[in-house]
Amino acid sequence: MTKEIGRICYFEIVDRDRNGYIQVDRIVFSDDEKPPEGLLFGNDDHRDYLPAQPSVPPSTFAMIAMDEAPADTRIHIRGSHKNLGDIAPRRFLRVIAGEEQTPIPPGTSGRLALAEWMASEQNPLTARVMVNRIWAHHFGKGIVPTTDNFGMTGDRPTTPELLDWLAARFIESGWSVKAMHREIVLSPAYRAAKFPVRRLEAEAIRDALLAVSGSLDATLYGPSITPHISKYQDGRGKPKSGPLDGANRRSLYIQVRRNFLTPFFLAFDYPLPVSTTGARGASTVPSQALMMLNNEFVLLCAERWARRLEAELPDENARVQRMFQEAFARPADAWEVREVAAFARERGWKEAAHTLFNSAEFLYVQ
């Protein structure tokens, strides 16, 4: 509030939290320092005065865009806003959608019409691009190798008939990504395929660390988590740091802050969110080993894993077997049990857990 007489001010009460509610009985303007007698909120036990309220559903927030008085614009001849040509009706690119297009309803921005056209059965391009990316995710290479380029400068599909069949199945399933995953992994082609060794993506490595340590919260949905920001990260608009473990949520729920990307993710080829990325790189650089050795989040997961196994399994040989099953999905060989148990007796189980996290078998999938 402002003290100057005649200044205009306003109250804005905003509740962007999904938990709890706001109830306002009244707002009183007064020249007195003390609130008026009998004011509802002047009593500390004001809740006794409030009548029972029905339960309020949680609010859901999303980013939206709204145009004010949308209209067609004139062509800027040679790109100059001072040299205007004819009015160009809003529509999709003619080279893709053709001349015969449904006109944009007056008074609307055209975003809804564009979305409906992109997800229309009459437009197979969107479905082709999506199923090609799903295929590339499973097989390491798309039917169209250039996953983000279906144009003349991109590669031709190796089997166009398969791409069209998958696109048709995708549309028939109601554009269900889950159904397409199921279609692919249950196919004879997938069962007979020989896959190259692949390193886990940045998010999968973080999720694997949480899962093996026994900390992963697999709850679906809910608000996103502010990323952990170290004291070495600085820049404009620096937000308050989130928890080191990301509240144990999957990496899917960690907020993407373009100016404050998680260093752990960046070390493992996390794509920059300034543009789309059809296929991620998979480099092998010293900074990845240093990150796994020194990162405080990795050390925290190693400590949690060791503490949990020490509490659950008093026998050290059984403890090593459990560690190999959880980290590598296989039993440990006899020599591995001897080596790890001897190392743990000398250096501690936290160091043993940390060592297994740093192995290539943990980071790569065969």
Which key terms come to mind for this protein?
single chain; 366 residues; mainly alpha; two-stranded antiparallel ribbon; two-stranded antiparallel sheet; 4 strands; 4% strand; extended
Describe this structure in words.
- The structure is a single chain.
- The longest helix is centred in the last third of the chain and has 17 residues, at 296-312.
- The strands form 2 sheets. This protein has a two-stranded antiparallel sheet.
- The chain starts with 72 loop residues before the first strand and ends with a strand.
- It is mainly alpha-helical and 366 residues long.
- Helices cover 38% and strands 4% of the residues.
- 15% of the residues are buried.
- Among the domains are: 124-192, no CATH class; 197-366, no CATH class.
- Helix 3 (124-139) packs across helix 5 (177-185), helix 7 packs parallel to helix 10 (296-312) and helix 11 (316-328) crosses helix 12.
- The protein has helices at 94-97, 111-118, 124-139, 160-172, 177-185, 188-192, 202-213, 263-267, 286-294, 296-312, 316-328, 334-347, 349-357, 360-363; strands at 73-76, 84-88, 198-199, 364-365.
